[in-house]
Amino acid sequence: MEPDKKEGRYLRIHQQLKELLKKTADRDARMATIVAVLHHKMDYFSWTGFYFLVNGELTVKTYQGPVACQVLEKNKGVCWAGITQEKTIVVPDVHLFPGHIACDTRSSSEIAVPVRDKKGKIIGVLDVDSTSLNSFDDVDALYLERIVELI
Ligand code: SME
Hints:
alpha+beta; Beta-Lactamase; globular
């Protein structure tokens, strides 16, 4: 998607989510709504979902897309990199990322965005896959970081 179009789309999604999320304080409902809106509005998102730390294990939460790994091997792959490096990880080509966990063999690029609690502690990641190479950039990182703050 061209950068201008992408930015406009994210701005509209952010605004729409702010309105939708006024309806409940329930975290699961808010996360499910975020995933549904992103997955259906961003045509290059092939898998969109959350992994949260549960007893030290990254465990899948609400998602849309093909069936995914329920628990990710510890300290391996893109999602764990987001947790341990405490920053958004943009992967242009997953095949070149050491330890990448291929839940879906069609995945080619990926972004993992840390989710923090109110005290700033990392509790999970928003993970998005694309079947095309180089799908994610600084614009995705910036807006997805803003969107996870809405949880
Ligand atoms: N590729 C991820 C695993 C989760 S799936 O993409 C849904 C990783 O390497 O952590």
